[in-house]
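This entry is retained here.
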Amino acid sequence: AGLRRRRPGLRIELLPVTNRFFGPSVSAAGLLTGGDVVRALAPLRSRLRREGTVVFLPRVALREGSLFLDGYRLEDLQRELGVEVVAVEPRAGALLRQLEVVVWEDR
């Protein structure tokens, strides 16, 4: 509620990403691949760009700070999706803190 008071119209949406690289039964965030993220979000690309979306991903999906298991880099996702992509620690508090940064910076 506090975030929405500071940023009326703020919409937070959780989107599932099916792990096609290792199989749909694999649900560990650390095994998420960049290709799977692109496949999940590509159909929404124009809406995401139009709405100024910021995509948050669990940091444990990345190696060396920006590399997914399939060789995609965080920068590749940003370029292909046309939106900002931010890696966050996979904890609720970390996500809330990052959301506050986005709200305050008025991205």
Observations:
- Residues 17 and 37 are 6 Å apart (CA to CA).
- The longest strand covers residues 54-58.
- The chain is about 40% helix and 10% strand.
